[in-house]
Amino acid sequence: MIENYDNVDVFVGIDVGKGEHHAVALNRAGKTLFDKPLPNDETKMRAVLQQLKRHGLVLVIVDQPATIGALPIAVAQAEGVLVGYLPGFAMRRIADLHPGEAKTDARDAAIIAQAARTLPHALRSIQMADESVAELSMLCGFDDDVLGQITATSNRVRGLLTQIHPALERVIGPHLDHPAVLDLLLRYPTPAAMQKAGTTRLAARLTKLAPRMGSRLAVDIVEALHAQTVVVVGTNAAALVLPRLAEQLAALRRARAGDSKIRVLDPRRAFIQARQPGPKTCPVPVSFCRAPRPSLARLL
Q: N- or C-end of the chain: fewer Cβ atoms within 10 A?
């Protein structure tokens, strides 16, 4: 429920978009005060809101409170305007009750404005806790992008190894998440280079970063190298590509493991701020609150 809803004089529905939004403003009697495209620009948004504030207390409702809807919310809050959002499920159900099937920005904005005027129970207030959840969503999106790059790069490395030396890939492919293996590929990027180095040098290189499995993995690598005597076409090209992919993969893993700000913005605290009805009451199972932070951030 929106605070001070009974005192609202102007109901603004905004259908947000990437380039520009569409805004429809209604007074309490249902008269249209504004129905135009709204550029995604702070100055022009402020001008429209200041014009509407002449009619009384303004309530701005958007259909997406995060991502592309973040700027209209921030501008409205800066102007001292009430803000809220219409959840997507409610938006779809309300849209089904309106005539016409075409999905246009003007139609959606009008539906949002009408819902803001006549269906206060369908609205959700945007508070500080919701802003924390939006921040978590952005950070998790970045983390997902990095994870996707890690997966793609790792698959590319394993694909190249499978192409030039399948037996070697079966040994080191499952350990590409370990920095010792990536460091080994940087120093010895081809089967010939590893075979020339020998078990002793390989073990010395691996044990620097993998003291427990380094020696065993070196023995397994040498055994795999002996299983193939032919040189596959493309091996020389792989020698140029593999070190760069290994370096890229190592950098991506360091970025995700060392500087992840998802660990700084505690999702458990954001969850409690957003959902907890009392100072010591958690409305969800304790096991949920104790979930790993990245996982809980995505659930939020």
A: N
